[in-house]
Write a structure and sequence with these properties.
Layout (H helix, E strand, L loop, with lengths): L1 H7 L7 H20 L12 E6 L2 E6 L12 H10 L16 H4 L8 H16 L11 H9 L12 H16 L1
Antiparallel strand pairs: 1-2
Helix pairs in contact: 2-5, 5-7
C-alpha cells in the first residue's frame, strides 16, 4: 500500500513522479466512481494499493466499506453529486483525511470530499507529514483543526506545480 511505502521510506516522503502517477490513477478512479454516484469517503494511503504493470507504477483504490451511494438511481445520485444536493449525515472516515464537510454535522458531502482527501494524501506523500493536527489522536481535535482550516505546513523542495495542486485542493473544495 501507499501507507507501507511511506512508512518504509527514510523520511516518510515519496518521489514526486510517483506521487504524480498516484494522483493521476486516483483521479481516474474517482472520475469513474463519481460518475456512478459513489463517494469513497475514506481515501487514505492504506486504501491505495501500489502495483506494477509493464514496468510502470499503477495505483488502485480499495476498501469501499464506507462508500456512499444514495438510494435513488445512479443517474439521480450522479446528478445530486454534481449539483451538491446529496447530504450524508454520518461522520465517517479516517480523521486526518476527512474533508471539512465530513467533520461538520449536516453539511453536504459531495465528490469534492474525495478530492480533498486526495490532496491530503498527496501532501503527506510529498512532505512526510499530515497537514492538519499531525500529532493529534483525538478525532474531535483533528476535526476542529480541519474545520478551522488551520494552517498546513509549507511544502518545501517540491516542484512549484505539484505544490500548487495540493495547496489548491482546499480552495477548490471549499468553493465548490
Amino acid at each position: 500500500t501507499l501507507a507501507q511505502r511511506i512508512k518504509d521510506s527514510l523520511d516518510g516522503r515519496i518521489r514526486e513522479f510517483e506521487v504524480i502517477q498516484m494522483a493521476f490513477d486516483m483521479l481516474s478512479a474517482l472520475e469513474c466512481m463519481h460518475g456512478q454516484g459513489v463517494i469513497h469517503r475514506d481515501l487514505k494511503p492504506a486504501n491505495i494499493v501500489l502495483t506494477e504493470e509493464d514496468g510502470q507504477l499503477v495505483c488502485k483504490l480499495t476498501d469501499f466499506s464506507i462508500a456512499a451511494v444514495e438510494q435513488e438511481s445512479r443517474e439521480e445520485v450522479s446528478r445530486s453529486l454534481q449539483t451538491g444536493t446529496a447530504t450524508l449525515q454520518a461522520v465517517t472516515g479516517t480523521p486526518h483525511y476527512m474533508s471539512p464537510e465530513q467533520v461538520s454535522e449536516g453539511l453536504m458531502v459531495t465528490a469534492q470530499t474525495d478530492l480533498w482527501s486526495l490532496g491530503v494524501v498527496m501532501f503527506e506523500s510529498l512532505s512526510g507529514k499530515l497537514p492538519f493536527a499531525p500529532d493529534e489522536r483525538d478525532r474531535f481535535k483533528i476535526g476542529v483543526a480541519i474545520q478551522n482550516h488551520s494552517e498546513a505546513p509549507e511544502l518545501s523542495d517540491v516542484i512549484e506545480e505539484v505544490g500548487a495542486v495540493t495547496d489548491g485542493v482546499a480552495d477548490f473544495t471549499l468553493r465548490a
